[in-house]
Amino acid sequence: MSDLRELYQEVILDHNKQPRNFRKLENANREAEGHNPLCGDEVTIYLDVEDGIIQDISFQGKGCAISKASASMMTAALKGKTVSESEEIFARFHALVTGEDEEPDIEELGKLAVFSGVREFPARVKCASLAWHTLRAALVQQDTPVSTE
């Protein structure tokens, strides 16, 4: 577990300092905003979905290292996936960070498994999952912003 914690810190810091896909997607055909009023995290998710496939995905926003790293890793993991695959990945990720899945399949989650430590800090679960909930809102073209409260 010590190795996973060290990896967690390394990966979180890397994605916070150099987030992947951190930009406004000019050809987005779906987008949604999300807010975490408790800590001030804000994220906008941009999607280009064609024929049920996430052709491109990006984000912009501000927030803590966990929030930004989670959004960054989410965009990298979902680009090229189908909408249904993204829902499955969301479900596995959410179960991982909330502790619903007591024995997560680390290999199945790939790099996202580094967020397993978040379950130890319930207040940080909202930071890690904000981008994911906002993604779901974008996929269904929800008009109202997502809030973690």
Radius of gyration, Cα only, in angstroms?
14 Å
Task: Give the distance, in angstroms, between the N- and C-terminal Cα atoms.
Answer: 31 Å
Total domain units: 1
**What is the approximate shape?**
globular
Low-confidence stretches: none
CATH topology: Sufe protein. Chain: A
Helix and strand string, N-terminal first? HEEEHHHHE
Describe the structure.
- By secondary structure, this protein is an alpha+beta fold.
- Helices cover 46% and strands 19% of the residues.
- The chain is built from 5 helices and 4 strands.
- Strand 2 and strand 3 form a beta hairpin.
- Helix 3 runs antiparallel to helix 5.
Question: In brief, what are we looking at here?
Answer:
By secondary structure, the chain is of the alpha+beta class. Helices cover 46% and strands 19% of the residues. The model has no long low-confidence stretch (mean pLDDT 91).
